[in-house]
Design brief:
The protein is an all-alpha fold and 98 residues long. Helices cover 65% and strands 0% of the residues. The chain has four helices and no strands. Helix 1 crosses helix 4 and helix 2 packs across helix 4. The termini are far apart. The model has no long low-confidence stretch (mean pLDDT 88).
């Protein structure tokens, strides 16, 4: 089992804003790494399973995604994470916690 927590998230705050927000002027500080971690760990990791999740994290970190994994990331995982991250931002914001 590799320590993949040290690697960057699959998506960045800028990508979430560009793809899930209607206001492109949204401050990237609103989307912390913790929010991105929660979306990834709560929704993506359980569905992929530990071994495949670690494979994707390692390949993504090393810029060595296989063609199939690149397709999975580009067309499925990243778009899902844009919206899942938004969900984790919206609730605390709605409650006045941010």
């Amino acid at each position: 089992m590799a320590n993949v927590r040290q690697y960057n998230n699959f998506v960045t705050a800028s990508e979430v804003i560009a793809n899930a927000f209607t206001n492109q002027a949204t401050d990237t500080a609103l989307i912390s790494d913790s929010i991105l971690d929660i979306a990834e760990l709560a929704h993506i990791k359980p569905e992929l399973g530990l071994d495949f999740y670690e494979e994707l994290k390692t390949q993504n970190h090393n810029s060595s995604l296989t063609t199939d994994n690149q397709t999975l990331m580009t067309h499925y995982l990243k778009p899902a994470l844009y919206w899942l991250s938004l969900i984790h931002i919206s609730e605390p914001t709605r409650l006045g916690m941010i």
